[in-house]
Amino acid sequence: MSNPVPPQSSPPRHVALFVTCLVDLFRPSIGFAAVKLLEEAGCTVDVPAAQVCCGQPAYNSGDRATTRRIARQVVDAFEGYDAVVVPSGSCGGMLSHHYPGLFDDEPALKVRAERFAARTFELITFLVDVLGISRLPAHYQGIVTYHDSCSGLRELGVKHQPRRLLAAVDGLTLREMSTPEVCCGFGGTFCVKYPEISNAMVAEKAADIAATGADTLLAGDLGCLMNMAGKLKRQGSPIRVRHVAEVLADMSRNAAIGEPEDGR
């Protein structure tokens, strides 16, 4: 389930962006797109310099001690903001759904983690569900299909929100896959532990994407996008891959995910 809208008289306006490791290292344009969307929605946006990884790799590997140390640093870095916004369902799910349980034996830290979790939102759900945005001044000439990333869909309830905004983008046509909710096979450490299974899953996903006739694949989680972009590229597919925020922020002139920055 997605986070409930916080009970307050006015929408949160002073927000902090949790950039995520993959965005920072592989696709900073997603972070810039997120800032643009939030600022155009009337928010003041900070990017705390002390932020680190959300801790999900350690958490999924069973290393709770390291995860707790990471979580303390993240909670400290994001104190004092009306909301924490994340352009990733995977990291957003970790922050909002798993942090409080890390501190069951430390009541004071648990309360802080619960408050942090309650004001943490995935980017598109924050725009639609919290700020009430239904249309953005974006243009994208093409046919797109949208992949529902597992954590965003199943932990945070991200489903109708990106489709609502995409439906209002000038020039854009959305064609659904037959199985948009089926996992792409990435799963963080899953693709490392079970590469054969992961490859079979992403091959099925690539076939489903191609069957739509779309020229562009969108999603809200860079891990999934990199996995699918890699498979499509190895197959010689011309389908472009982008984060949904890049299209909604009208920043789709950037090279697609998996392409060189100069477009060659």
Tell me about this structure.
The protein is α/β, with parallel strands linked by helices and 264 residues long. The protein has two domains: 14-129, Rossmann fold (3-Layer(aba) Sandwich), CATH 3.40.50; 134-248, Rossmann fold. Helix content is 46%, strand content 13%. The protein contains 13 helices and eight strands. It has helices spanning 21-26, 28-40, 56-60, 64-77, 89-98, 107-118, 123-130, 150-156, 160-167, 190-193, 195-211, 222-234, 244-248; strands at residues 14-17, 44-46, 83-86, 120-122, 139-146, 170-174, 216-219, 240-243. It has a four-stranded parallel sheet, with helices on both faces. It has a four-stranded parallel sheet with strand order 6-5-7-8, sandwiched between helices. Helix 12 (222-234) links the parallel strand 7 (216-219) and strand 8. Helix 5 packs antiparallel against helix 6 (107-118), helix 5 (89-98) packs parallel to helix 8 (150-156) and helix 7 packs across helix 9 (160-167). The model has no long low-confidence stretch (mean pLDDT 93).
Considering the chains and any ligands shown, give keywords for the structure:
264 residues; alpha/beta; Rossmann fold; 2 domains; four-stranded parallel β-sheet; 13 helices; 8 strands; 13% strand
